[in-house]
Amino acid sequence: MNIRFVTQKIHALIDYPVAITLIAMPFILGLGSSNPLALWLSVGTGVAALILTLLTDHETGVVRVLPYSLHLAVDFMVGVTFAIAPSVLGFTGIDAIYYWANAFAVLTVVSLHSPQKSPRVA
Question: What pTM value is reported for the model?
Answer without folding.
Answer: 0.89
